[in-house]
Amino acid sequence: MILAVSNIVSKLTTLDYVIVVAYLVVLMIIGYQASFKKKKSEEDETLFLANKSLGWSSIGFNMWGTNVGPSMLLACASIGFKTGIVAINFEWYAFIFLMLLALVFAPRYIASKVSTMPEFMGQRYGDSTRNILAWYALIKIQISWLSLGLYAGGVLVRQILGIPMWESVVVLVAFAGLFAFAGGLKAIAKVNVFQMLLLIGVSLMLMFIGLHKAGGLSTVWHSVPHNYWNLLRPATDADYPWYAILLGYPVAAVAFFCTDQAMVQSVLGAKNLEQGQLGVNFIGWLKILSLPLFIGTGILCYLLFPKLDDPNMAYMTMVTNLFPPGLNGLVIVVMIAVLVGTVGSSLNSLSTVFTMDIYAEKINKGATNKDLIRVGRMAIIVGCILAVGVVLAIDQIKGLKFFDVFQSILGFIAPPLSVVFLLTVFWKRTTKLAVNFTLSIGSAISLGIGILYLWVFPAATYHFWPHYLMVSFYTFAILFVLAVLISLVDPNPVRYVATDEDTASIAKPTKRVKLAWTLLVIVMVCLYLFFNGH
């Protein structure tokens, strides 16, 4: 018999409550110390980049910690339950775009000595481009990081406590926002690595208990449908045809891994370029763990609880039915920790971009440090309110699986960013007019298509839509062609011309970097060959 997820509360023992309370107390102590400790980092950009002190392991863990949140657990377990390992493409296929970041984009970012992505584009095309990109970055952070992370947390709390979504997200955003508002983000960053290790430990424990319960790895391998072990599905597959992943995923991946401030920031804080490139390589290896940690839980749930009504409840169903008393509290602690880190970091990024790229550059160039802190805190409050509204709108989407909600929204945000950054780096004839058009009009087109797809004419009701990944690809292709045409016919082209000094400052990869990436490429190719044709 499947134990109802909401019954997790009835299973909690005294030990569970002790673990939860102890963790919350520690969080509050750390937050208090960070809030009342004399601060210099809020307005010090070099400290914002950790004084360029990060080594490869810190960079890899930080990037993975930014990438992984409650959404990863819930969404991947859900899609694993429903379709097997095909969704691991969204983790493993990423190695190509991580390599693109490490070997192509990162050398240019570091050589440019920038702190933000709007600043990088502003160096090439001027203040107007920086301004447009800053606003687009704010929208992206608000939706792709803050709102989606909060939505995943809201679903989780709703599953555990059975309370309405709006109550869940208000409590969560208020809790996470408190740390960001009072200055606790720095404290959250300090314990982020520990939180990720705790998450890995708990997920592995759940995986081993599930494997034992299911009869072992061999039994699991032969008991699920054979196509559960295929990374590539046929073109006729309704959920994930191979061509949709091959063409559609890269659009979001370039934007997410190569241009997103939250992901690139760790590389910008590297001791040097080699450490940054090795750190990006490290997250490529960490992503291999997503199969046993996240997808595998869903596959095991399919075997152990095949009559589960809602695949979105796969992860929590495994927790509530397999973990012994005492460990449920540990799971809740891990969820709280990861959620606070994700939402808190999102609020911090939102606040930083608005304060530094918009307020300090356009509204009040003579702003004092006190002004910047005050405006930053106001931005956090506004971000919290907007996030609750977006989450409630997402919750109204019908007919899409949990995983698809995340990927489709990211797919509609990504095309303009992928177009302008790829053209900027790879095509010297790209003009300022084309970049600004793509970031403004192109973004309106892309987001408009997304609104039509998700809310006005939802794909579950209107079947004329192609796969959402292909919608993203077609949008990217149209914007790409428009940007090229505009650059070619621009009567007064303003182009970025790199000086000899600029070109000379872009360092080549070292032997260690080349070796690390060669090994990762070999392993990934082997994995794709092994998980195919079943």
TrEMBL record:
Keywords, comma-separated and alphabetical: Membrane, Transmembrane, Transmembrane helix
| InterPro entries per UniProt | Na/Glc_symporter_sf, Na/solute_symporter
Q: Which GO terms describe its molecular function?
A: D-glucose:sodium symporter activity
GO cellular-component terms in the record?
plasma membrane
Q: Which domain of life is it from?
A: Bacteria
Q: Where do the TM regions start and end?
A: 15-34, 54-80, 92-111, 132-153, 165-185, 197-220, 240-259, 280-305, 325-354, 375-394, 406-426, 433-456, 468-489, 515-531
Q: Which PROSITE patterns match?
A: NA_SOLUT_SYMP_3
Where is the protein localized? Membrane
Q: How does it sit in the membrane?
A: Multi-pass membrane protein
Q: Which family does it belong to?
A: Belongs to the sodium:solute symporter (SSF) (TC 2.A.21) family.
| Name of the molecule in the record | SSS family solute:Na+ symporter
Instruction: Tell me what organism the protein belongs to.
Output: Mucilaginibacter yixingensis
